[in-house]
Amino acid sequence: MGAMDLRQLEVFLAVIEHSSVTKAAESINLSPGAVSLQIHHLASDLRTDLFVRTGKRLIPTTAALGLAVRAKALMAKVREIENEFGGDPAADTRQFHFASGATTLIHRLGRPLRLVRKQYPNTTIQVTVSATEEMVAGLLERTIDLALISLPVDAQRLTLLPLFDEELLIIRPSAKPVRGWHVGSIEPAELAEAPFLLNPPRSNMRTMIDQFLDDLGVKPRVVMEAADTEVIKKLVESGFGYSILPEFALRNQPKYFQAFRVPGKKLIRRQALAMARTEHPRALIISIAKLLKGALARNI
Description:
Helix content is 43%, strand content 26%. By secondary structure, it is of the alpha/beta class. The longest helix has 23 residues, at 62-84.
């Protein structure tokens, strides 16, 4: 038995629709001879007669009518797949997996994600909260489509869309509620004596903080570690120690901590959207990345 292909089924359905080789040929931009040859090959592959001629008309056999039902369903599924994997983001109904750190999700992504849901109401969007290093691994494994990460990272296999810079500030407990927003100055000598609550070792955030403190000549006395910024912030407010956290996560009122920077020694990290580098970028990923970038730029 030969190998039946989709083109043969497309030609077959055209003949079924028009009951004429000539009209079918016109509808699919083939010559009548090519249409006849495709029908002959299909009948040979299936080992059955598909049409009988009555005058100038082709009459489908019972076998052909049964084949037409299944062929139409198959071609509809093929069109669905083509649309899903095509270049139109609005027609892409595959699940979309977005990832972000908890702090950025809480303080920055509310409105931007609402815009994404409005733009793509029929797309199933899964959101994961994770650390930068875990998000990068997910991008490379293709389990995550788009992630909002903290730089620097090894970007050899990633495409990055830089978003904005954010300052990390030193915070220490306050016995009284602090109102308003003020960033004071603190000297490295005080940090050398302070207990610290920091992110876990080998995390992207911890690497930046360790390098910053090392540049100040400070070896931090780490008394507790946590992966979540909001958890660390609450522990600082409860009096457990100092920490270093993103500025935009510190502005809630009132608060039981004070914010500081070392004079002349700002600690900055850059946020970026990241996707896996590929020869076949998914149009929906690019479209959502541009939408988020624009929305986040307006929020700054």
